[in-house]
Amino acid sequence: MTTDPDFAKLIAEGAAAPVDGWAFDWLAGRATEERPPWGYARLVTSRMAGADAALDVDTGGGEVLAEVPRPPRLLVATEGWPPNVAVARRTLAPLGATVVAVTPDAPLPFRDASFDLVVSRHPVRTDWPETARVLRRGGTFLSQQIGAGTVREVSEAILGPLPPPTQRHPDQAVAAARAAGLTVVDLREATLRTVFHDIGAVVWFLRKVVWTVPGFTVDRYRAELLALHHRIRAEGPFVAHARRFLIEAHR
């Protein structure tokens, strides 16, 4: 479809780089994203210092949890994507954490009131009744979540115009938390500038963050990728916006 050697090289790089775990180090120098102002990792560290038994849901490769300097007596993490389970077990071994492989959308495999702290960064889906069930009375749920329409500009560059998002709105999370019997004590929102400097970074991102363009493959969307490559070359880095919100709730 194209003889542009630069396009072919960048596409090949983005398609070949590993996407296991939930770190984004491969994008260094190729893409950037602003960090939320609340400092999620710092908040988790603070909460963990006062916890007795803690659970990290959808831990990815355990990257955030690994930053905790003083883990609680009992530290457990769940992960539903098999390639990440082995990564998380290696990453979290120094903390003495147990990583449990789970089936997405299945109930949490823990007894009622097992934890006084549950945390989750960018969960695929928050099961609010299950979260409330495994929390002890007085326990805390702390989560940084992906907001509605995050990096929508990337999705539309590949798929074309999309209808307004109907999921992942913060008010929906608040309503679900309350319906599960939790009390929401903090809610914060942020819109974060996300910049892609080359098409290889876009390809890698779409392979990793699979819900941005469901069913993405390079071959399927080569024409759209080429158009975006030319746009970056002509106009400069491609700018999108990530939406995040922080929610804290008590039982």
TrEMBL record:
Residue stretches making up the Methyltransferase type domain: 55-142
UniProt keyword annotation of Methyltransferase present: yes
One Pfam family of this chain: Methyltransf_11
Family annotation (InterPro entries): 23S_rRNA_MeTrnsfrase_RlmA (IPR052939), Methyltransf_11 (IPR013216), SAM-dependent_MTases_sf (IPR029063)
Keywords associated with the record: Methyltransferase, Transferase
Single Gene Ontology MF annotation: S-adenosylmethionine-dependent methyltransferase activity
One of the GO BP terms on file: methylation
PANTHER family cross-referenced by the UniProt entry: METHYLTRANSFERASE, METHYLTRANSFERASE TYPE 11 DOMAIN-CONTAINING PROTEIN
Name of the featured protein: Methyltransferase domain-containing protein
Natural source organism: Micromonospora krabiensis
